[in-house]
Amino acid sequence: MELSRLHDWAVDYRQAIVLQRQLAGEIELRPGFPSPLDTVAGVDVSYEKHGHQFFAGVVVLSFPDLVLLEEASAVDQVFFPYIPGLLSFRELPILLEAFARLRTVPDLVLVDGQGIAHPRRLGLASHLGLWLRRPTVGCAKSRLCGEHPEVGSRRGERVPLVHAGEEVGTVLTTRDRVKPLFVSPGHLIDIPAAAELTLACCRGYRMPEPTRLAHLLTNRLRRLSAG
Hints:
- It contains five helices and eight strands, in the order H-E-E-E-H-E-H-E-E-E-E-H-H.
- The protein has one domain: 2-Layer Sandwich (archaeoglobus fulgidus dsm 4304 fold), CATH 3.30.2170.
- Strands 3-2-1-4-5-8-7-6 form an eight-stranded mixed β-sheet, with helices on both faces.
- It has helices at about 15-25, 85-100, 125-130, 190-200, 210-225; strands at about 40-45, 55-60, 70-75, 110, 135-140, 160-165, 165-170, 180-185.
């Protein structure tokens, strides 16, 4: 998969915040599902606690039947510090290495992280969407910002996630009696479609199948590296 260069990664945390604010203005939310939508990708990054070795995985599945078509990975050293709200500057460079090894160009990408549900409206999924110029959806297991009413415990129940008076995503129950996900559009998709797409990709687990399989891939890479 060919990637265009969006910006340089040699930035400190202050420069990263300025860059986030600039890039947030380039995010575009489009109503409905992308067309065509024949393939969906999932991404994940794994690393040893307190270590610098990172393992990135990308899986591509057919849609809507979610059959695994391809996977790609990358392993590299990462030194950008862990700073809440700046995760993309830590994980995106190695994720892009994995995407560069894909033969398939996915129609949409699901990310275990935030989209616009971010204090500066540029979470990992949004930042990735700008780099790939593809629709992206953030499917986070925890909330970074915003408030919401209590959501029901049945699959498909949802409530809006609101931050600073703006609706930025959906708190979505993807499986009966499990904790909800915090779903937000990353780029080139809107809030309702992001929630519906996430639910369509769930197959009996809390996490959508693309990100679940990507997580299994990166954990496998990490275990192999440890011997």
